[in-house]
Amino acid sequence: MFSGRKLVIATKHGKEKVIAPILEGELNVICSVIPDLETDILGTFTGEIERKYDPITTLRKKCELAMERSNCDLAVASEGSFGSHPSMYFIPADDELMLLYDKKNDIEIIARELSAETNFNQSEIESEEELRKFILKTKFPSHALIIRSSKDEFADIVKGIHDTALLFDTFKKFMSKYGTSYIETDMRAMQNPTRMKVIEKATQKLAEKTNSICPNCSMPGFGITHIKPGLPCELCKSPTNSTLSHIYVCQKCSHSKEKKYPNGKNAEEPLYCDFCNP
Known about the structure:
The chain is of the alpha+beta class. It is built from 5 helices and 12 strands.
């Protein structure tokens, strides 16, 4: 279905560096990008342009923009969100969604990679000493920083700072002009190698899901939609919260399949049993 077809990557932030090699290798597609594609009209990380849509709708619109500009009917896009990890609340997380949109066959395939591997951070900085402590936590200078006067101000903002002298010089100018400064990590993919690695993992997941074929209708994208807990304790045989099976569902024909023991074990250690270890 995809072999030999042209695929446009909807990005302006260099994501094709990690996306194209995987999709070309796994799906045998021919990847391209549109150099001046303005995806920022759908929203920016720093808030100058508000994100009006949910992540999936944003992905869809990115693909549509790219397909319109390229006269291509196959596109892929990614969208990242940053904040507290949903289960480990005190650490930041990078939540990357990817969408493969096949307009010709009316197929959407979605993959997600949730990772605690991120340098995401932001803070109001009032002194050079605070700034020195901040940059130690953010992988600077290999990862860029952004400076503006405050969290909710967008008129004066400097992005993509990698140079230490430029960082401190810009900080001094902001403090002199506004009396405050707000520093944050630049989460644009081309400025953030750690995020780029997460996008790479998400792309691999997308390729694997795309190559998963429904046994009933032969459509691609036969993926996991539900994780079923209940793996029995090896000592007392009571169900635990550990994964018993993965449920696969086809988005086209709704055929479903349950795959038991996906993690390679048919029982859980008593350590993780609420009955044996309350």
